[in-house]
Amino acid sequence: MELQKMVVLLLFLHLIFTGFEIVESSAHRHHHHHHHHHNAQSKFFVFGDSYADTGNNRRLASSWKMPYGITFPGKPAGRFSDGRVLTDYLASYVGVKSPVPYRWRKRGNKPTGCGMNFAFGGTGVFDTLTPEPNMTTQIDFLQKLIRDGVYTKHDLSLSIALVSNAGNDYGTYNHHNGTAQGFPAYITSVVNQLTLNLKRIHRLGVRKIAVTTLQPLGCLPQSTFISSYQSCNVSQNLLVSFHNLLLQQGVERLNNSSKDSAFVLLDINSAFTAAFKGQHNLTFSNPLKPCCVGISNQYSCGSVDETGVKKYVVCEDPKSAFFWDTVHPSQQGWLSVYSALQPSLNQLYS
């Protein structure tokens, strides 16, 4: 608890707040040294936001516009990146195809065999500034599919879930002029709800559940552009530390109360930080600078004017950039995160 008190104190000392806005409206070859745990019957279920969404967002989202998807699959396909996202790498780890986005499940006989992706960009555990379904509703979707007999108890007993929470609840809090004093209590309510969601997914029968820590929000290009992409926002990252501390405690409590240690924390926060330092043999020219950026503050990656003229520029080599746009990693960025997560991923099969 002392650490917790200290973090809260630091938050108050540092809360010189600058736009905590994570809303994502603007917003790979398999490496054979990674373990693949193929089980013909494995199912992979995904819940969360744009860090995990592979095509659920409606067609108005930037993820369906050029230049998103230029690296993979070669055109925009609903991923908030130039290519693959965390979901795709974890699916390859589980040994299944990337699960079909929930919104496309009825299109042409799309296989629901390897599981399903319920993540929608821009969403949070609570309602955010997007009309897309929050995490509670996403879990309701799975529950309905189970009731309808699409997935059996046996399917679930072999399944793994990814739960991504990348901070949209906090962008929304800020947007609604939430106060600095109220932030610790709000973070606590977000993490409490997230913990309840994890428990509920497990109660539905999912065997192992991986949940991501919050990435260093203060290092996202939307925060670092103020320093010409040279330095992170310390106060935002302190809030992130508080979120991650509470989440770690929540996951420990869940594991202590479940016989099978079903919950695994994927520390993408440390993975981002390692990438910024050039670890894992992937170096990025300037890790805090995005590859695709609007030509001015009013434009974002993918913006065009009414005549169709591009209002953004794209770097020469997306592989050299950790971030694709002001919020989301590039395919290469996600690959470096995935490489850093290997030890935690092994816990999914321990």
Automatic annotation (TrEMBL):
Superkingdom of the organism of origin: Eukaryota
Record GO terms (molecular function): hydrolase activity, acting on ester bonds
Pfam families: Lipase_GDSL
Signal peptide range: 1-25
UniProt keyword annotations, A-Z: Hydrolase, Lipid metabolism, Signal
Family affiliation: Belongs to the 'GDSL' lipolytic enzyme family.
Protein name: GDSL esterase/lipase
Lineage, opening ranks: Eukaryota, Viridiplantae, Streptophyta, Embryophyta, Tracheophyta
